[in-house]
Sequence to fold (413 residues):
Amino acid sequence: MKLSIVVCLYNTKEEYLDACLDSIRKSTLKKEDYELLVVDDGSSKKYDEILKKHDPVYVKTENRGLLATRLYAIMIAKGDYIAFCDSDDTVSFNYYAPMLKKAEETGADIVINDWAFDSQTTKHACDGDITVTENLEFEGKDILSFYASGEGRLHSYFVQWNKLFKKSLLLKAKAEIEKTEAVLAKKFTFSEDALSNYFVMKNAKKLVNTHTGYYFYRVHDDQSVSTNGKEGLKKEIDQMALTFDIMLENLPSGEYGEKIKEGILSWRSLMARKHYSYAKNQKYFDMIDYVREKYKQDKLELSRVKDSTAYISTILLGENFLDIDRELRRVYNAKEPLNVVYSPRDAYVVKTLEYLQKYEGAVIDKSAKKIVIVPKRKIKARHKIVYTRPAYLLGLFVFKKGSKIRAYLKKKL
Fold:
C-alpha cells in the first residue's frame, strides 16, 4: 500500500464528513494505491450511512483527543506514506495523487501542497503564503530552520493537513512525543500539529512542495481550534505553552540549535500577543497574568499587523469551484482527445490541465469534436472588495482582535 489518508473524527457534522470522504474518493488516486482510514475518537454520533456510502477502513477508540488519535492512526496505517485530512475539510480532485508522485520521484520525506480557506461564502487562498506561491526544496538542517523561521505566522508551516509524510518519519516523531507523559495526559486538540511537525521536521532529510490543487480548510463555529470562552482560552494557552516547552527541551545542539530556539521564542511571543489581545478584548482580566506566566513574558503586547502578514492578500477561487473541479474531472476520465475551453487566467485550471497532460495522458486538441467547457470563476462583487489587502488592513486597525464585532464580521464575510 502506497498511501494512507487518515481522517480523524469526533462528532463532526454528517454533512461535513460526507463531503470530506466524497472529495477523497472522487480524486485521481488509483484505488490500489491508497487506503482511506477513518479513526473515530469516541464520537457519540453514528455515521453508519456515510461509512457505508464511502466504505473506508473504520476504527473507533475511546475519546483521547486529536493528538493521541493521530498517533494511534500512524501505528495502524498500512501505507508507506501518510496524509491527514480533517473530517470537516475537503480537497480538490487532483490533490493527493501528485503529492504521492512527487514523493516517489524526489525521494522526499515531506511533500507540501496548496491550501485555501473555505468559509460560508467563498473559497480563497493566501498569496502571502510562500508554500502556495513559491517552489520549495530543503534538505537536512534547512528543513527545521525553515519550520522555525515561520515563527508561527504562516498556517501552512506547522499544520499537518496540507502535507504527505513518510510513515517511518511519523513513527520517529511519535516515539519522541511519547517520551513526555504530560502530553499524553492532556487531550490535545489545539497545538498537536505544531508539536508533531517539530519532531517530523527535525528528523526529515528532504522537503519539497507542489502546486496541483487545494486543501480546503473549512472555517466554522464548531472547530476544535475556535477559542470558546475563558475555559477554551485557558486550554489553548496550556497546550500551546507545553508545546513550546517541549520544543525548547529538544533543541538540536550548537549554533544550529540556537537559531531554532530564536524562532521558537519569537513564535511563543506571537502566541502571547494573540492570547493577551483576546483576553483583554473579552475583558478576561484575571487571565492576563496567566498568559504572562505560561508564556514566560516579562511584558505583554497586543497583536501586530506583521503577525498576520500571510493573510493580507488573497486569491479568490470562485463560488463555483466545485463546478470547475467537476469539469476537470471529466477531462481526467476522458478516453479520447478533447477540445477543452477554459480561461487562461485561472491558474488552478491551467496547472491542473498541464498536470493531466503530462502525467495522466490527457489529450487536449482544439480540433477535437468532443468539447469540455470549464466554467469561469464566479466571484461576487462584494467579495472583490472584501477580500483585498486594503480591506484586510482596515479591519486589523479598526476592529480589535478578539472583539465581538470582528468575530461577527469574520463569520459573515
